[in-house]
Amino acid sequence: MAKQLRGVIFDIDGTLIDSNDQHAQAWVDAFEQGGYGIPFETVRPLIGMGADNVLPQLTGHSKESQEGQRLAKWQGEAFKARHEATVRPFPLARDLVQQIKDRGLKLGVATSAKPEDVEKLLGIAGVADLFEVKTSSGDVKQSKPDPDIMHVALDQLGLEADEVIMIGDTPWDVAAAGKLDIPTIVFRCGGGHPDTALVGARALYDDPADLLAHFDESPLAGK
Questions:
Q1: Is 121 within 8 Å of 89 (Cβ atoms)?
Q2: Span between the terminal Cα atoms of the chain, in Å
Q3: Residue 6: what pLDDT?
Q4: What are the residue ranges spanned by the domains of the chain?
Q5: In percent, how much of the chain has pLDDT > 70?
Q6: pLDDT exceeds cutoff 80 at 1
Q7: What is the mean predicted confidence (pLDDT) over 38-59?
Q8: Is residue 173 a contact partner of residue 166, using CB atoms and an 8 Å limit?
Q9: How is residue 113 annotated by DSSP?
Q10: pLDDT at site 2
Q11: Which of 51, 118, 208, 211 supports an S-S bond with 72, CB 3.0-4.6 Å?
Q12: What value does the mean pLDDT take over residues 140-146?
């Protein structure tokens, strides 16, 4: 637990917006376009990691390879063309972020999303104006579960690891934060992972509305 909580670092996809299925389907679309027979059920548990991790695990190609770049490009195009329009914010996502801000805590984003997509995704969540720090895959060489993005978020917030809490929805969030001893609150609303896969989280809540309803008994209130 943080000695004195001064900031909160959020994931976006699956945490503030209901988008993980759409990202997974966009990968399936890209793999189909490239001639790979990789089903949705195989892709879905990997959502939350960046293309640098997804591509090698599923295709054997690095993100930097010509094939990897092609597949990542197709995934981004498929998401925007066919799936982004169905993404919605989770109930009371903005209310939760506003509550945290009203408590005087600094707010940062640490997401595996592409840098050009961050503002759009935060806009869908209705929270783009509330965050002072927004870090993405463009700020690091390795995405979650590597802790690089957490380092960058901490540096930009001007805080130490024992002064923040991470809020995410996947084991990759827990792992990335855990490598720096940052406690994690995890939402189940991202789907794709049973509670047993989220061992290490400080607390589990169903979604932003659930945490907001129990805010004063949560780790955000020092409990």
A1: no
A2: 9
A3: 97
A4: 7-19+88-221, 20-86
A5: 99
A6: no
A7: 95
A8: yes
A9: S
A10: 45
A11: 51
A12: 89
HSE-CB for 168 with a 13 A CA cutoff: 32
User: Of 207, 203, 204, 154, which is closest to residue 176 (Cα–Cα)?
Assistant: 154
Tell me if residue 146 falls in helix, strand or coil. Answer: coil
Q: Tell me how far CA of residue 28 lies from CA of 31, 33, 45, 190, in angstroms.
A: 5, 9, 13, 18
Among 101, 96, 124, residue whose Cα is nearest residue 111 = 124
Out of 3.90.1150.30, 3.40.720.10, 3.40.50.1000, 3.90.660.10, which CATH number does the structure's domain 7-19+88-221 have? 3.40.50.1000
Q: Is residue 114 classed as helix, strand or coil in its secondary structure? A: coil
The residue-averaged pLDDT of 68-97 equals 97
The arithmetic mean of pLDDT across residues 72-91, rounded, is: 97
pLDDT digits (tens, 9 = 90+) for 85-118: 999 999 999 999 999 999 999 999 999 888 888 9
Tokens of 213: 């309803």
Q: Find all residues with CB under 8 Å of 96, minimum gap 6, and list them.
A: 208, 209, 211, 212, 215
Cα–Cα distances (Å) from 189 to 56, 168, 169, in that order, read 27, 10, 7
In single-letter form, the type of residue at position 221 comes to A
For residues 53 and 149, what is the distance between their CA atoms, to the nearest angstrom?
14
